[in-house]
Amino acid sequence: MLLSDIKNKIPEELFTILKKDIKELRPAQEKAVEAGLFDEKNLIICTPTASGKTLIAEMVMLKRILEKKGKAVYIVPLRALGSEKQKDFKKRYGNICKIAFSSGDMDSSDSYLENYDLIITTSEKLDSLTRHNTPWINEIATVIVDEIHLLNDPSRGPTLEILITMLKQSLENVQFVGLSATIGNPKELAEWLDAKAVIDDWRPVKLKQGVYFDGEIKFKD
To answer: pTM for this structure?
Structure first.
C-alpha cells in the first residue's frame, strides 16, 4: 500500500509531513489501516521491533488531533523512552500540534497540560492524574499504550490494567491502540480491550539462528 493510497483518509497537513520520508507503508501499517485504524477501531499491534508500530500510533494520533476529536495520550513504561518520544514527535509534528511530556510529581494535577494536544506520560503518572480528577482527562480521544505486554508485569501491570479499565469506562469515543513486539496472547488481549489484533512477522532485517564456535558462526538452515 502506497502512502498516496491513504491520502484521503488523513488530514492534508499530516500527509504533507509524512510524504517527505515515506512512500510505501510497511506490512503492519497496511494491516492496521485495513483493520480500522482510521475508523476509530481499537487495535492491538503485535509485530517485530522496527516494523513500523510507532508510525501507526503517530498517524492515528495526529489524524484525530487535527480533526479536533480530542487530545492524544501516549503511555510509555519508562521516563527515558518518554523523553525520546517527545523529542522525535516534536521534530516531526511540532509545527502542527503542541506536544508535552509529563512524569515526576505524583501529587500534581499538571493543569498546564490543558494547553497541549499530544501528551506523553507513564502509566503511573496518568493514573495519578486521573485520581486527581484532572479536567483535561475528559478531552482524551486517543490512547496509545506502548509495550502493552507489560500488563503481565507483576510490579507495573496492575496499575496499567486498572488505568486502561478506568479510561474505558469514563471516556466516550476513545480509541485505544496497544503496541508490542512480545505479546504471548495477542488475541486474548485484544478481546479484553474490545480490539482487533494486528499480527505480522515482517521485519526490516531478517533474524538468523546460529551457533558461534571457534571463530565461526554456523547458521541454522
So the answer is: 0.91
Asked whether the beta carbons of 175 and 142 are under 8 A apart, the reply is: yes
Segment 94-140, tens digit of pLDDT: 999 999 998 876 556 678 899 999 999 999 999 999 988 888 999 99
Domain boundaries, the chain: 26-204
Beta carbons within 8 Å of 100's beta carbon, 6+ residues apart: 86, 112, 113, 116, 118, 119, 120
Q: Residue 99 and residue 73: Cα distance in Å, rounded?
A: 10
Chain mean position to CA 221: 35
Q: Could you give the percent of the chain with pLDDT greater than 90?
A: 72
CATH architecture of 26-204: 3-Layer(aba) Sandwich (3.40)
